Amino acid sequence: MKSFGPKAWLLPQPVLILGTYDKEGRPNAMNAAWGGQWDMHEIMISMGNHATTENLDINCEFTVAFATADTLVASDYVGIVSARNTPDKMEKTGWTVVKSENVNAPVFTDFPMTLECRIKQKIDESETGYFIIAEIISVLCDEAFLAEDGKPDVERMNLITFDPVHNSYIQLGRKVGNAFSDGRKLK
């Protein structure tokens, strides 16, 4: 096996779109790849020093949408352009924005699924950013993406993942097995 030394190549990495309001109440979004499940009802996200970080210092509530193949271009755009320098950043995405019903944050309706969140804890806070642990208040899913059982149909969402090895996005594919079930074949 070839060794590449220490790299941040944990795969797959979700492409998370964080929605916040700035101090004037304008919606903002940023692309964050370094996040994941923390507990049954909590997530963790590594935050750098961004306009979104400033927004979270004002208001600890935000949304997290999962980027898709259909939202890829605008999702990448909100990750490379800062609201600090581009005031019309959100208009350029073309996304439809509504106010969340459960938290003080924007919901971008162009995404199939969104988490409504509230920060519980900031870890290692410094001038370069911090890690946030956030409680999931509610999960929203566009009804067009519900399966026959009434739950979100992840296969139909065309979710994308960040490939840190090649700095690219990969569309997630089809179901290949059943968790907490298929392994029983080896018992």
Describe this protein's structure.
- This protein has 3 helices and 12 strands, in the order E-E-E-E-E-H-E-H-H-E-E-E-E-E-E.
- The strands form 3 sheets. A 7-stranded antiparallel sheet has the order 3-2-6-9-10-5-4.
- The mean pLDDT is 95.
- It has 187 residues and is mostly beta strands.
- The protein has one domain: Pnp Oxidase, Chain A.
- Helices cover 12% and strands 39% of the residues.
- Strand 4 and strand 5 form a beta hairpin.
Overall residue-averaged pLDDT value: 95
Task: Give the CATH superfamily.
Answer: Electron Transport, Fmn-binding Protein, Chain A
Q: How helix-rich are the residues, as a percent range?
A: 10-25%
Total separate domains: 1
Tally of extended strands? 12
Total helix count?
3
Provide the spatial order of strands within the biggest beta sheet: 3-2-6-9-10-5-4
Q: Stretches where pLDDT falls below 50 for ≥5 residues?
A: none
Structural class by sheet pairing and helices: mainly beta
Q: Which CATH class applies here?
A: Mainly Beta
Task: Characterize the biggest β-sheet.
Answer: 7 strands, antiparallel
The CATH topology assignment is Pnp Oxidase, Chain A
Could you give the distance between the termini?
A: 31 Å
Radius of gyration: 17 Å
- What are the secondary-structure elements, in order, as H or E? EEEEEHEHHEEEEEE
Q: What characteristic shape results from the CA principal axes? A: globular
The CATH architecture classification is Roll
Strand content: 35-45%
